[in-house]
């Protein structure tokens, strides 16, 4: 019997307004445990591609249709999720429009890159966002 | 009960000789079904980081110690593995020395990039290697 970590996916959604001005990235207040601020995301279903799971979860939690820009990394430290071993494929994506909390998201927020409350983030989402911010600096 | 695809990892090992001359990439003849030519790889264990699983599998199947260069992509088409739904995190890595078949590998081969028998590859490893060759062209 094969046993592997659960496979999840999380999205760093870069949100733009109708005039293509960058508004910030989208974070959610989790409805389920562990409570706290998080990137939107969820588990990949059997029979579903990771990219499709990402788009489905972004839609379910934030009501946004997203376009994937690139895969940032896979985060798989066995201790990153306090419940069980979960590996998450993290994608950077972009979207337009107004996010609206849904499904596992209690509230949804838009944060300027220099105003993200990193210490309020659950799981290893602080590290994920720090890696994202670092990669943006390297591109500039 | 959460059910997600099994999580695996495969490696594109760029092999160099002692004088840092590129020798080719390492492929294996699989001992277990499905039989055929494949990238070395295997399942991620619970409690193990994906990068550690990659290094363990490369060592088990080819006897090589590898250094990870970068994550190429995650391949998760539900039909890519004929047995069940498996998502594979594919890493490009480098190594030195002489590969030796071990574990699930019946034979181990070193192929020049322009001599890889793409149509003999199992799973979606043909596509994975084509993506790799394409990314190398774009870098050059």
Structure description:
Chain A has 140 residues and is α+β, with helices and mostly antiparallel strands. The first copy, chain A, has a single domain (6-138), classed as Nucleoside Triphosphate Pyrophosphohydrolase, CATH 3.90.79.10. Chain A has two helices and seven strands. In chain A, β1 (6-16) and β2 form a beta hairpin. The longest helix of chain A has 15 residues, at 125-139. Chain A binds chain B through residues 2-8, 43-51, 71, 73-74, 76-78, 85, 87, 89, and chain B through 2-8, 43-51, 71, 73-74, 76-78, 85, 87, 89.
In brief, what are we looking at here?
Chains A, B: InterPro entries: Nudix_hydrolase, NUDIX_hydrolase-like_dom_sf, NUDIX_hydrolase_dom. 2 copies of one chain form a homodimer. Chain A has helices spanning 50-62, 125-139; strands at 6-16, 22-30, 37-38, 41-43, 67-75, 86-96, 105-111.
Order of helices and strands of chain A: EEEEHEEEH
User: CATH superfamily membership of chain A, which one?
Assistant: Nucleoside Triphosphate Pyrophosphohydrolase
Oligomeric assembly:
homodimer
The radius of gyration of chain A is: 14 Å
In the CATH hierarchy, the architecture of chain A is Alpha-Beta Complex
Q: What is the percent of helical residues of chain A?
A: 10-25%
Distance between the termini of chain A: 47 Å
Largest interface: A-B, 25 and 25 residues
Q: Tell me about the largest β-sheet of chain A.
A: 7 strands, mixed
| Count of distinct strands of chain A | 7
Categorize the overall geometry of chain A. globular
Helix tally of chain A?
2
- Count of structural domains of chain A: 1
Overall mean pLDDT of chain A? 95
What is the CATH C level class of chain A, in words? Alpha Beta
CATH topology of chain A: Nucleoside Triphosphate Pyrophosphohydrolase
Q: Helices and strands of chain A: which structural class?
A: alpha+beta
Q: Segments of chain A where pLDDT lies below 50 for 5+ residues?
A: none
Please state roughly what percent of the residues of chain A sit in beta strands, choosing from under 5%, 5-15%, 15-25%, 25-35%, 35-45% or over 45%: 35-45%
Protein name (chains A, B): NUDIX hydrolase
Keywords (chains A, B): Hydrolase
Organism (chains A, B): Halarcobacter anaerophilus
InterPro entries (chains A, B): Nudix_hydrolase, NUDIX_hydrolase-like_dom_sf, NUDIX_hydrolase_dom
């Amino acid at each position: 019997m094969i046993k592997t970590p659960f496979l999840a996916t999380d999205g760093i959604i870069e949100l733009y307004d109708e005039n293509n001005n960058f508004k910030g990235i989208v974070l959610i207040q989790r409805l389920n445990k562990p409570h706290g601020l998080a990137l939107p995301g969820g588990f990949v279903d059997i029979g579903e591609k990771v990219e499709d799971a990402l788009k489905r979860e972004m839609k379910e939690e934030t009501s946004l249709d997203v376009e994937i820009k690139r895969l940032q990394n896979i985060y798989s430290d066995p201790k990153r999720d306090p419940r069980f071993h979960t590996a998450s494929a993290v994608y950077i994506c972009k979207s337009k429009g107004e996010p609206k909390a849904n499904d596992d998201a209690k509230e949804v927020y838009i944060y300027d890159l220099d105003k993200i409350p990193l210490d309020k983030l659950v799981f290893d989402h602080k590290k994920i966002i720090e890696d994202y911010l670092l990669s943006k600096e390297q591109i500039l």
